[in-house]
Amino acid sequence: MLCFLAALLYLDSYKLVSLRLVVAVIGCGVVAAALCYGVNAGLLRITALDRETYTRYVSPIVEELAKALIIVVLVRAHRIGFLVDAAILGFAAGTGFAIVENLYYQYLMPNAGVGIWVVRGLGTAIMHGATTAVFAMMGLTMLEQRGRSLAVAFAPGFALAIVLHSAFNHLVAFPRVATLVTLVALPPLMFAVFQRSERAVADWLGRGFDADAKMLESINSGSFPESPAGRYLTSLGKRFRGPVVADLLCYLRLYTELALRAKGILMMRESGFEVGIDDDTRARFTEMRYLEKAIGRTGFMAIHPLLHMSRRDLWQLYMLETP
Questions:
Q1: Residue boundaries of the structural domains of the chain
Q2: pTM for this entry
Q3: Conformational region of residue 147, where left means phi above 0, alpha means psi within -120 to 50, and beta covers everything else
Q4: Could you write out the three-class secondary structure of 165-234?
Q5: In contact, 168 and 182? CB cutoff 8 Å
Q6: Average pLDDT over residues 285-302
Q7: Beta carbons within 10 angstroms of residue 323's beta carbon
Q8: In terms of pLDDT, which residue wins out, 72 or 84?
């Protein structure tokens, strides 16, 4: 599991996910597995189901829900922006879960042979990573379609993760088949996801870099007041005091500069250069947070249309702020 996760990180040419975040998500998966152990034990007693029926129909819901909540929190916190990081972090959550489960198997079967570990240990572990990765990728894809709420966007992926998990548990009598299907299907799926996401990142970088550069050039050249964005900002002078409008312009400039900086870092990483976050960038973030308080919630909502704050645009700022 850890080797496969390391391979996913290596394939990510833009280095969208930091190692620190991956380790934190693995830790969350460990906590989720520990919680599920107690919940499953309690529900098994309450429902009075036999273990085989419970494993097939109830435990997949409990376990996929626990792992899914990790992904939902990451999406809401704008830590996931593309299919690549959705796949990596989804698999990382499953990895943490599988580590605890395999330690539990080791406790129950201390003398198990290599064959059993390949089938029940590796096979089940890959299943946990794959189902959560599929959930994360499907949810993010549907979330990018406008008008979908978080619950609606993630419901199909959650249902599919449960079905896949349950199907794997139904093949308990044929563990070799279940493991073989998982190991054969997962690598091509991940490769296809990485290919598609690489193209999406490149397209987003090209379009976004041009738009941000044009905005910044307009602000710095003095022609901004005549631009559509400038006229909109000028119209806000009828609703806000002069100093607030000035702060709004400063905030727009800072946001655009940081957005350009983030895209530049991604381009450098794709070319093989590791670029750190300098003190000047951190100072700009400090200034931007101060301006957010100064303009207030109403002012922030007023300038929001100029910031192009899509989910991916917000992600790039968090990528800079928490390297």
A1: 2-197, 222-321
A2: 0.80
A3: left
A4: HHHHHHHHHCHHHHHHHHHHHHHHHHHHHHHHHHHHHHHHHHHHHHHHHHHHHHHHHCCHHHCHHHHHHH
A5: yes
A6: 86
A7: 14
A8: 72
